[in-house]
Write a structure and sequence with these properties.
By secondary structure, the chain is an alpha+beta fold. It folds into 3 domains: about 210 residues, Rossmann fold (3-Layer(aba) Sandwich); about 80 residues, Uridine Diphospho-n-acetylenolpyruvylglucosamine Reductase, domain 3, CATH 3.30.465; about 80 residues, no CATH class. The protein has 15 helices and 18 strands. A hairpin with a 2-residue loop joins β10 and β11.
C-alpha cells in the first residue's frame, strides 16, 4: 500500500526552499487548492500571514464564497480582505481578463499591506494543464517551462508551494481534517481552454502522458530556459546602451546572435519600455527585426547608422496624462524645480508634434525626433511648460523608474 504523503511536512519543505518574507500574502478563492494552501500555511507558522479573496462579481455565489473564506481565516486567526473587480467590459477573453485583474488587485493589496510575496494555490494539475495548453499554442521552451514556483512580477514575488502536489491529494487532506471548500461551476465549462485541457488529461494517460510526465517536461524546459536566459544576459551586457529612456543596440552585433538570443534580448527591451509583462508573439517580432522601421508592443523600432533603437511609440501615449509627482506611462516621474508654484494646474503628457514645435533648438535635443514625440513633458492645459529631453526647462528633473518586466516570464509563441 502506498503511504499517504505528509502534506504538512512537504509544505514546510517547499516553503523552506522558497524562503518567503516575514509578511506573506495568501490568495484564497475558496476552492479546494487555495483553502488547503491557507490551512497548510497556518499550520506551518513560518511567516505573518494575510489572506485576500478576489470577488470578480461574475457569479452571485462569489460573495458567499468570499464570506466562507473570511470565516475560515478568522478561525485560523488570520486577517482577511475581499478585493472587488468591476472592470470587465464583457469583451475579449474573460479568463485572461479575470486573471490579469486578479493579479493587479492582489499586487495593489500586497503593496498596501507591506507584503513582500503572495503565495498561490496552483497544483501539479494546473501545471500539467498549462503545459498542454501551451503545446496547443505552439509554444517553445519558455512556454513549456509553464509555471515557476518562484516568480518576480508586478513589483513583488509570487510563490507556488503546491506545484508538486495533486488536487486529489489536497482534497483528501481537507476531508481528513474536516475542512470544506467551494466548487466553481465554471471549472466544468468546456468553453474554456483550461477546462478542455483538464478533460483531455485522462484520455492521454494511456500514452504515458501523465501529470507527472508533463510536470517533468516543465522542469526540464525551465532548466533549458535558464541557459537561454544566461546567453541573453551576456549578449545584452555587450550590445545594449540606455539613453534617456530609449534602449539602443549595436545592430551588427545583434544580427550576429543566434535567433533565439536576439529575440529574447529585443523582447526584453520592448517589455521594459512598454511596461508590459507579456512578450510579443514571435512572428511579428521576427518581421519587426527585419524592417528598417516598425511598431510593435507599443514601441517604435528603428535601424539607422549601425544601431537598432527601441523607443516608446508616440501613438501609444498620446492620450496619457498624469499629475505632477505621479508616475506617467508606468516609467517616468517628474520633480518640479524648488521655486515652482501652482503645480496642481500642471500635468504630464507626451511632448507630441505640437510640443516639439515649441522646442526649435535641435542642438539641445537629447533624443531623435521620433523618440521625443513620446517623451514626457509638462503642460498647463495646451501650453507647454517644460520638455527636459528636448532642451526646454532643464530645471525639471526626470526620473526613470526601473521596470521588473525586463525578463518577462510569460512565453511568446506563434
Amino acid at each position: 500500500m502506498t503511504q499517504a504523503p505528509d502534506l504538512a511536512a512537504d509544505f514546510a519543505q517547499a516553503m523552506a526552499r522558497l524562503a518567503p518574507p516575514a509578511r506573506l500574502g495568501l490568495a484564497v478563492s475558496g476552492g479546494s487548492d487555495s483553502m488547503a494552501l491557507m490551512a497548510l500555511a497556518a499550520a506551518w507558522k513560518g511567516a505573518q500571514l494575510h489572506v485576500a479573496t478576489v470577488d470578480h462579481g461574475l457569479r452571485r455565489e462569489a460573495a458567499q464564497e468570499a464570506q466562507m473564506v473570511a470565516q475560515a481565516a478568522q478561525r485560523l486567526g488570520l486577517p482577511h480582505n475581499v478585493l472587488h473587480w468591476q472592470g470587465w467590459d464583457r469583451r475579449g477573453n474573460l479568463q485572461d481578463a479575470a486573471r490579469n485583474a486578479r493579479r493587479a488587485l492582489l499586487a495593489d493589496w500586497a503593496q498596501r499591506e507591506g507584503l513582500g510575496a503572495i503565495a498561490l494555490g496552483h497544483t501539479r494539475d494546473d501545471q500539467a494543464e498549462t503545459v498542454l495548453m501551451r503545446l496547443a499554442r505552439g509554444s517553445g521552451v519558455d512556454g513549456l517551462a509553464a509555471m515557476a514556483a518562484y516568480q518576480q512580477a508586478d513589483g513583488l514575488v509570487w510563490l507556488r508551494p503546491l506545484l508538486e502536489v495533486s488536487r486529489a491529494q489536497l482534497r483528501d487532506w481537507l476531508r481528513a481534517h474536516g475542512l470544506s471548500w467551494a466548487d466553481d461551476p465554471s471549472n466544468d465549462d468546456p468553453g474554456f481552454d483550461r477546462i478542455k485541457a483538464r478533460q483531455i488529461r485522462a484520455a492521454l494517460a494511456p500514452l504515458g502522458t501523465s501529470d507527472t510526465r508533463l510536470t517533468e517536461t516543465a522542469l526540464r524546459m525551465a532548466e533549458a530556459r535558464a541557459v537561454l536566459e544566461d546567453a541573453a544576459d551576456e549578449a545584452e551586457a555587450r550590445l545594449r546602451s540606455d539613453t534617456y529612456g530609449d534602449i539602443v543596440f549595436d545592430a551588427e552585433g545583434l544580427d550576429a546572435l543566434r535567433e533565439d538570443t536576439r529575440n529574447r534580448v529585443v523582447a526584453r527591451a520592448l517589455c521594459e519600455i512598454a511596461a508590459q509583462p507579456y512578450r510579443p508573439r514571435l512572428k511579428p517580432l521576427r518581421a519587426a527585426l527585419q524592417a528598417p522601421r516598425a511598431t510593435l508592443h507599443g514601441c517604435l523600432i528603428t535601424r539607422k547608422s549601425g544601431t537598432l533603437r527601441i523607443t516608446r511609440e508616440a501613438k501609444a501615449v498620446e492620450d496619457l496624462r498624469a499629475p505632477i509627482g505621479a508616475v506617467w506611462d508606468n516609467r517616468w516621474q517628474i520633480t518640479p524645480p524648488a521655486d515652482a508654484s501652482d503645480t496642481d494646474s500642471l500635468s504630464v503628457a507626451a511632448l507630441g508634434p505640437d510640443g516639439l514645435q515649441a522646442c526649435p533648438d535641435r542642438s539641445r535635443w537629447l533624443l531623435p525626433r521620433s523618440s521625443l514625440l513620446a517623451s514626457p513633458a509638462i503642460w498647463q492645459g495646451a501650453q507647454l511648460v517644460a520638455a527636459p529631453l528636448a532642451g526646454v526647462g532643464a530645471e525639471w528633473r526626470l526620473h526613470l523608474r526601473q521596470s521588473d518586466t525586463s525578463t518577462p516570464s510569460d512565453p511568446y509563441c506563434d
